[in-house]
Amino acid sequence: MISIMIDWIRSLPQQQHTYEEGQHLFHRNDPVRSMFFIEEGTAQLVRHHRDGGVAVLQRAGPGSMLAEASLFASAYHCDAVAIEPVTAMLIARRNLRRLFLTSPDFAQAWAMHLSAEVRNARTRAEILSLRTIAQRLDAWIAEKGALPDKGSWKSLALEIAVSPEALYREIARRRQ
Amino acid sequence: MISIMIDWIRSLPQQQHTYEEGQHLFHRNDPVRSMFFIEEGTAQLVRHHRDGGVAVLQRAGPGSMLAEASLFASAYHCDAVAIEPVTAMLIARRNLRRLFLTSPDFAQAWAMHLSAEVRNARTRAEILSLRTIAQRLDAWIAEKGALPDKGSWKSLALEIAVSPEALYREIARRRQ
DNA sequence: CGTCCGCTTGACTCAGATCAAACTTGGTGG
DNA sequence: CCACCAAGTTTGATCTGAGTCAAGCGGACG
Question: How many domains are contained in chain B?
Answer without folding.
Answer: 2
